[in-house]
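Please, structure for the following, as tokens.
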Amino acid sequence: EAMRCFKGSKPIADLSEAVRTGTQYKVEWVEVPDRLAVTTSTRKQFAPGTVTGSRKLEGAYYADGEHYFVASFARATDGSLNEHDGQVWAYDPKKEMVTLTTIFGVNPDPDSDTDYDGPDNIVVDPNGGLILAEDGNGIQHLVGVTAAGKSYPMARNELPGSNEFTGPTFSSDGQTLFANVQDPGHVFAITGPFHGPGTPSNSTP
């Protein structure tokens, strides 16, 4: 089945319509005519407006009863209503609602440490925030997002000639964050405790 979102009785054609965190849509599900895509790819089996679209849906993660998923970017040139450099959505299957938890505006300087773009893989951290693996332009980071929606850099990829972070995941006790650099292929173990920006830490540098 494919997701179709509504704001009241108004169908939402594309998730890029949402520009503010906290935006919520009611969710209905539409059966995929040919779920095995024997003759036609899944995305091409729906007429315009029959399901809700998005540009470059990528990372997904389940935690605390909600399914989180990422839209990496949207541009007017690809038909999106509004431009952004990343959205994170949380789907509550009990309420059949989807909520925009995080949005990055179009990054004016991908080579800086202050703005982020192209989130991909995702994990929920032990404090209820998010860790996103950046797969955008310029510098590649692991980006933290607090439960209140404030983003901050957790790690920066300084390996020469390498590319994106991938697959962040926490150990079962929440004290170690594992993350990979896709090429040339490294796995890092980052030890906690983990705190968002502005939160006092008892850890020793």
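The chain has a mean pLDDT of 89. The two ends are 49 Å apart (CA to CA).
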